């Protein structure tokens, strides 16, 4: 799933006939987070005339939630064009807000659609994207005397990652992450590295951010 990194993203400024269209995007994993972000942008620019917005939030097992707002601009000239831009990026769990400071010149319907579309595109392009992926976690318990060698062997393997080493008096636990929930390939690898002594125990899963 393509989304934005969970970090502050830069605000962009598009000037059209002395009106300024300030765009900012954010990672929002729920409708509540999306609306809270919109409110925070509004609070940051209390004198602006319009804070138009669009967001898409994924819902497991259902269609995503998609919402947009013209916030006082003529109907269909801001929020919906911004939502179309957001859809076109393939991003989800993402909100984009365009704040307009009026410059004194009316832009007309077509001008507003272009301005809000271009501003939203700029704001989204300035944000850092990541891909969310599920990683499956496994505990592997081995004698302390073998743990260092096994850790080195596992770190050299391209299909898994060593997340943590937990050391005890006689045994260590290696926390591994793999792309697949199937334990068989990992069990086969561990058997070859430990003469069949180490076996993977399921330890849950985690969603991680991968660079795009």
From TrEMBL:
Quote the cellular component terms of the Gene Ontology held in the record. Answer: cytoplasm
Q: Which Pfam families match?
A: Impact_N (PF01205)
PROSITE patterns cross-referenced by the UniProt entry: UPF0029
What Gene3D superfamilies does its record include?
Impact, N-terminal domain
One of the GO biological process terms: regulation of translational initiation
Q: Impact N-terminal domain spans which residues?
A: 17-123
Query: What is stated as this protein's family in its record?
Result: Belongs to the IMPACT family.
Q: Which PANTHER family match?
A: IMPACT FAMILY MEMBER YIGZ, IMPACT-RELATED
Q: What is the protein named? A: Putative YigZ family protein
